[in-house]
Amino acid sequence: MKISTKGRYAVRFLVDLAEHKKDGFIALKDVAERQNISKKYLEQIVPLLNKSGILKANRGYQGGYMLAKDPKELTICEILKITEGSIAPVSCLDFEPIQCERAEECSTLYIWQGLYKVITDYLDGITIQDVVDREAENSYDNYMI
Q1: Which residues have C-beta within 8 Å of that of residue 105, sequence separation ≥ 6?
Q2: Domain 5-141, CATH 3.40.640.10 — does that match?
Q3: Using an 8 Å Cβ cutoff, are 125 and 117 in contact?
Q4: Burial of 31 from C-beta contacts in 10 A (0-12 / 13-18 / 19+)
Q5: DSSP calls for 59-88
Q6: What is the pLDDT at residue 140?
Q7: Which residues of 41-65 are buried (b: 16+ CB within 10 A; e: fewer)?
Q8: Domain ranges in the chain?
């Protein structure tokens, strides 16, 4: 399994919004500059996040985006499922219940189910707020005079 640029940039975008939530609505160009991501690329990611209820949008002057949910409630797993469509390591796990006609006799299915559980448990255990907190902690630790 490989996480696409879309998934990685979506996480960075939401972390940036969380880091600047006190500033209100944030212009896409500001996030693009801070994160060194093309504004055009972010414009492709925003509709996915907006449709899922993760973002609030404000048009016009002073417009931009802000998180619609508390960063403590947004897991990395949720974001990646929105942007990637699926994070299952094999396609037969994309649907519940499993729709593969070989599922009953598949001797390797338990491997992929176990891997999928490990991946989702890990990513469900990390929130946007966790990333923000870790970044703040690392920035504090790197302070030099």
Answers
A1: none
A2: no
A3: no
A4: buried
A5: -STT-EEEESS-TTT-BHHHHHHHHHS---
A6: 64
A7: ebeebbebbeeeebbeeeeeeeebb
A8: 5-141
Instruction: Supply 96's token pair.
Output: 């519940």
Strands (DSSP E) contained in the chain are 55-58, 64-67
**59, 20 in Cβ contact below 8 A?**
no
C-alpha closest to that of 16 among 41, 37, 40, 43:
37
Q: Which amino acid is present at 43?
A: E
Beta strand 55-58 with 64-67: parallel, antiparallel or unpaired? antiparallel
For 61-114, the pLDDT digits (tens) are 888 999 999 999 999 999 999 999 999 998 888 888 888 888 888 999 999 999
CA 130/CA 139 separation, integer angstroms = 14
- Tokens standing for residue 101: 């006609």
